[in-house]
Amino acid sequence: MFSRKKIKKNEESQPHSGSFIKPTVQQKLKIGESNDKYEQEADRVADKVVNQSKGDAVQTKEGEEEVQKKPIASEVTPLVQKKGTGEEEPVQKMTDEEPVQKQEEEEAVQSKEEEESVQMQEEEETVQSKEEEESVQMQEEEEVAQTKEEEESIQTKAQARPNSATPSLESRLNNSSGRGKKLTGKTKNEMESGFGNDFSNVNIHTDQNAAQMSQELGAKAFAHGNDIYFNKGQYNPESSEGKHLLAHELTHTIQQKGMVQKKVQRDLAVEPPNPKAVAKTLTDSEVESAIKYNKKRFKRESELKTLRDVLGLLHDVATIDKEFVQTVAQWQAENNLKVDGKIGPRTAAVIGYEMLQESKIDASLKPEAIRMLERGIVLSLSNDTYNDSATESRKKITFKVTVPKGLKREDYALVNWNKGFYKKGDGTYYKAQDYGTSREVNFATWQVDSLDKDPVYWSTAGSRWNYTKSGKRSFTATDDPGQAKSTQKGSHFKLDFKLQVYRLSDIPKTTTGTLGGAESKAIATVFWKYHVKVSATGTFSH
What we know:
This protein has helices spanning 37-52, 99-110, 112-115, 118-126, 136-145, 167-176, 185-195, 208-217, 240-257, 284-297, 301-311, 322-334, 345-358, 366-374; strands at 12-13, 24-25, 92-95, 181-182, 203-205, 219-224, 227-230, 378-382, 387-388, 392-394, 397-402, 412-423, 431-434, 437-440, 442-448, 456-457, 468-470, 474-479, 484-485, 492-503, 524-534, 540-541. The chain is an alpha+beta fold. A hairpin with a 3-residue loop joins strand 17 (468-470) and strand 18 (474-479). Mean pLDDT is 76; it is low at 1-27, 56-68, 82-86 and 97-160.
């Protein structure tokens, strides 16, 4: 069990007997006690963080109430210091000592006067300013003048660990404060996500000096303000035990310095319409759903890293996790979009436009910006209904493509694929004009649907499948596959259609049913169908 230590009150130095000098407050660095409430809390918090990090999203067990989404860091208890003393943050350590040793230390505290020695004198000398050269007898006189609650347990290392830092250790702490290494990569991302706290100011020390100080304190690791010092071999966040130790010490930094709300650090090129909006905290099920959705859509590592960078997240990892989803939700709130954490077309369009503007400064960003904008292309169908009369069954369907701001609609085209058959009542197949020849309508696999050599709907005026521009960023096209007539008794018309958006530059202008290898480059896809049966009496069913 990892344990915590509590703060002691500042010690006041007393003048030598006979002196009329007013006592001054000594800023003596304290060492927290083992197994106090702060240590116990650090263990509980570390347990929560480590358990939460075992999956991308926290799943609620069946029948359990949904846990309120509150950052774990906000639950951490601040250290209470003696008001007005200006006391420095204490040293809080993860002890290496056994329970028996802790008990012996406590007994040693109670029997302080009996066990004091010349060694005690040497340690006491280090925390006093003007009495450094006084005798043991003078120290004893001063101790009598001090109150019991301000007494310190200063003993030899062989007997127990000190409750206050020696001047040597305190000096080394001050000299190393703010140095060390920052948390990075997966470790930083995991800890910040787990705590809901920004650890950018935390410094990790794993050098020989950190190991030596840890050994002097009998600790695996200890925290002092925003600095965490590890004993030799103890910093290992990849292991379960090492991760727990790090989370434990990070809790100490929050206790001492307070929670630092995790903020998205963004330099936006485009000001959102509602920058002060605060997104709702997504539920566990919403987070899980958004993680699955986004993982399905975003698979390339380079794209993910760029996306995380634009969102203001750590971008040296390609991770879609709870923090990622909640950050997307915040982006959606600021842009007046539906808040669900999913990067669908509308969200992609907004993010893509931001990326495009940033690419004016960093040109290397433009290809990813275009790809993100293309995720914002919306392909929709209308009039997807059968219009049956007494003599025929038709479906005149309308396709609409809308490209987001930042793209040109003239750069994109529609391709309509079909698969299926038009079968007569006698079992043979109807023929249709296809690619300039008459062919049986019986296609076992997907082929490009065309009545001539131009297989696509695009913007060139002479195109057989020319589309109509609509508004500023849309275009429409129509198709009428209707063939069924009441006179074709016993016939079965069954064609499935797949409509896709491509970059015009990716597809050939002539084809015999394929796109010459460009099939996998589709940007958006919708499906529709034309299914009609003509009965023996000439009526229609679908």
